[in-house]
Design a protein that fits this description.
Blueprint: H1 12-19, H2 33-36, E1 54-56, E2 61-66, E3 72-77, E4 80-85, E5 91-96, E6 102-110, E7 114-130, H3 132-135, H4 144-149, E8 153-160, E9 177-180, H5 190-203, E10 207-213, H6 225-228, H7 235-246, H8 256-263, H9 265-268, E11 282-286, E12 300-310, E13 320-324, E14 326-327, E15 329-334, E16 337-342, E17 349-352, E18 360-370, E19 376-377, E20 385-387, E21 393-395, E22 398-407, H10 427-433, E23 443-447, H11 459-474, E24 481-484, E25 488-489, H12 501-515, E26 519-522, E27 528-529, H13 538-552, E28 564-570, E29 575-580, E30 586-588, E31 596-599, E32 605-607, E33 609-613, E34 616-620, E35 629-632, E36 642-644, E37 653-654
Parallel strand pairs: 1-7, 7-10, 7-23, 8-10, 23-24, 24-26, 25-27
Antiparallel strand pairs: 2-5, 3-4, 3-6, 6-7, 8-9, 11-22, 12-18, 12-22, 13-17, 13-20, 14-19, 15-16, 15-18, 20-21, 28-29, 29-34, 30-36, 31-32, 31-35, 33-34, 35-37
């Protein structure tokens, strides 16, 4: 998803997102992104293999690491012994059969070094991929705090891959295995937790959850160039990534930071430093400032500087900087230290300053890249302030020193994209996915799509290409791949919506799940939050993914899907809709069956009266005498009212194939 820095209300979850650093799209404060995620040097054994890990049952497991060329490495676990030899690239690989399910076992690796890995279990390993809704920690789920306190599951283990964008192949990742317990559960993936807990309750086998997710990232960032090129939708950004790799540019993973490096004289001349002399800068009023500098409507990068005096001693607790809404992107420095930045226009900026502030004078410098005539600081003066640990506030509205750094009017070339987190094609495939292959796994669960929603129609081609790419990379056949349908988000529309980015993305997710072999859709349309993209309802998400696995992989007789559109019949004055997955019959949740709409030849949508007849729904409207098409839950935040008897919600659908608002959207 695109990063909301910070979601409305500054909730506990949003504070996590702000503090989480690169893992959720925010550059590590005070450190260039190219340096913030440098993985460690190649060790004798990959960090993916350590104490407390889980080996995949039922198939050979590849263990790897690095040693001197020619070094013979032996791996032993249980009664199995296997060997390999380090090549000229120093990498060694050993394939070994795992012992019986369970444990704990000790794995011994001998070569130029000897290492023992303890408390190793054998069970099923699941790869958890996607955006920040996959990575969101359990403590921020609706019942997460209570669930963490009882999370005594010693046979469930988590490994979180450290964020690392890369423009070329890299072997190394960071991370470590941890045993799930009340002491560790707070910060594990909430979706992964509920998925694993449900599976453990039903299957009673060890589970290893490898979390490979980064907030704000699109699917193409997790896909190889080889898989993307046939689509021809990413030729421009792929060429740019290739160019940057060729010149050994810093591996930011985004386009905007490279643009700043090339054009921002303020960055080159250290305008964020407290020692910089700004005496010849113009005094402007903030909010505002662009008109006084001669760029009232033009795209421009402007630096603002202001000294703020803080009390001595500083009140205990968090000191937070509030800047209101900003178009398009801001980067904030306090006393020369970068404390944050965002290009998510629709949310107010909030930054934590404790690591950068001191009693007395503090220099705040803000770089703002305005791209629209109305852009820059969008909030009211009272929205710009510091809040100290004792809840007292200091206004920062009013006079600032300012100077234009980049006049970005034509013929100046603007950056390909403005996000300051990894959005480039291939960079997370190369930096975070490819380095963990060929880890033996059972399958993958995937929670992503928010960042791709402006190109929702494209997603029906992109996601299958990505899945095929992953399966090729891990070389373990068509392993299970289960997809989370996007939950409800944004304000609810009181009238039928003709075009909607999230509805069209959900449709693409459903199409992908129906056409990708060994796939399944976990529908979550009855969860979500209209005001926060980081929905707290993670338990139904994880458990519905688990139902997919239990039914389709483990062979359990459980219902795993809600009512799914199959076909429709046109009646004289109505439409009859047929469904699959009507286990236990169709059920209305709420006062009445809502969110159905119909349209005639004029393609104008009207709410429909709907009634259940057996395993069908009949819809009609007095405003549409001869309905031609029907839709259900076709908006970002619909009222989910149709379920089956097993309590699973119907998948949003449409019978028409009329062009949507994302069908021809191409950003490049």
């Amino acid at each position: 998803m695109r990063f909301r820095f910070i979601p409305r209300g500054v909730t506990a979850a949003s504070m996590y997102l702000a503090l989480a650093g690169f893992a959720l799209a925010q550059n590590t404060p005070g450190m260039p992104p190219s340096q913030a995620q440098v993985p460690p040097k190649q060790p004798f054994i990959s960090p993916l293999f350590s104490d407390n890990m889980v080996l995949q049952r039922g198939k050979k497991n590849t263990i790897w690491g690095w040693s001197n060329p020619g070094d013979k490495v032996q791996v032993r676990i249980g009664n199995a012994i296997a060997s390999g030899v380090a090549g000229e690239d120093r990498r060694w690989e050993v394939e070994i059969d795992p012992p019986p399910v369970g444990g704990p076992y000790t794995m011994t690796i001998r070569g130029s070094q000897k290492i023992e890995l303890n408390n190793v279990l054998v069970g099923d390993v699941w790869l958890c991929g996607g955006q920040s809704n996959m990575g969101l920690p359990l403590r921020f789920a609706r019942t997460g705090v209570a669930d963490a306190k009882t999370a005594n599951f010693p046979e469930i283990r988590f490994f979180s891959v450290v964020g690392n964008p890369a423009y070329r192949h890299t072997d190394m990742i960071g991370g470590k295995w941890s045993v799930l317990s009340p002491d560790t559960a707070d910060w594990v993936s909430a979706v992964g937790f509920y998925f694993a807990r449900k599976l453990e309750e039903e299957m009673h086998i060890p589970l290893g959850m490898v979390v490979d997710s980064v907030g704000g990232t699109p699917a193409e960032a997790w896909t190889s160039a080889e898989a993307l090129r046939p689509l021809h939708d990413f030729d421009v950004p792929l060429a740019e990534v290739q160019r940057l790799a060729a010149i050994n540019a810093p591996q930011y993973g985004n386009f905007i930071m490279h643009w700043y490096d090339e054009y921002d004289i303020g960055l080159k001349n250290k305008w964020g430093s407290p020692d910089f002399d700004d005496s010849d800068w113009k005094t402007v009023t903030v909010p505002g400032g662009f008109a006084e500098l001669g760029v009232p409507t033009e795209p421009a990068v402007v630096w603002f500087r202001k000294t703020v005096v803080l009390p001595d001693p500083l009140p205990a607790g968090r000191t937070m900087l509030f800047l209101g809404y900003i178009e398009r992107m801001d980067t904030v420095y306090v006393n020369g230290k970068e404390v944050g930045g965002s290009s998510w226009v629709e949310n107010p900026r909030v930054y934590f300053l404790n690591s950068a502030i001191k009693p007395g004078p503090n220099m705040i410098a803000i770089r703002v890249f305005k791209t629209q005539p109305h852009g820059g600081f969008l909030g009211k003066p009272q929205e710009l302030h510091l809040t100290l640990g004792d809840k007292s506030t200091i206004s920062i509205a009013g006079e600032w020193k300012a100077r234009v750094s980049v006049d970005a009017r034509p013929p100046m070339q603007l950056p390909i994209d403005y996000e300051n987190w990894p959005v480039m094609p291939t960079v997370l495939y190369e930096g975070m996915l490819r380095p963990i292959a060929p880890l033996a796994i059972t399958g993958a669960i995937w929670y992503q799509g928010e960042q791709n929603s402006p190109r929702g129609y494209q997603y029906r081609r992109l996601l299958p290409a990505m899945v095929a790419d992953w399966r090729k990379l891990f070389a373990q056949g068509n392993f299970p791949f289960y997809i989370v349908g996007l939950p409800a988000f944004k304000p609810r529309s009181s009238i039928p919506v003709a075009g909607d980015e999230w509805a069209e993305t959900r449709e693409s997710q459903a199409i992908a799940a129906a056409t990708i072999p060994n796939s399944c859709l976990a529908e979550t349309i009855d969860t979500g939050d209209p005001d926060s993209i980081h929905a707290r309802d993670k338990q139904p998400v994880g458990e519905r993914l688990a139902l997919c696995a239990l039914a389709n992989h483990y062979g359990k007789d459980v219902v795993y899907a809600g009512p799914t559109f199959a076909s429709f019949d046109k009646l004289p004055d109505a439409i009859r809709i047929h469904f699959t997955h009507t286990d236990g019959g169709l059920v209305v949740k709420g006062v009445k069956l809502e969110e159905f709409s119909v349209a005639g030849q004029d393609k104008k949508w009207h709410w429909a009266d709907a009634r259940i007849e057996g395993d069908t729904v009949v819809v009609s409207s007095p405003e549409v005498p001869h309905p031609q098409e029907a839709r259900y839950a076709w908006q970002s935040n619909p009222a989910a009212t149709l379920y089956n008897g097993a309590g699973l919600p119907a998948v949003p659908f449409r019978t028409d194939t009329w062009p949507g608002i994302t069908e021809n959207h191409r950003p490049y």
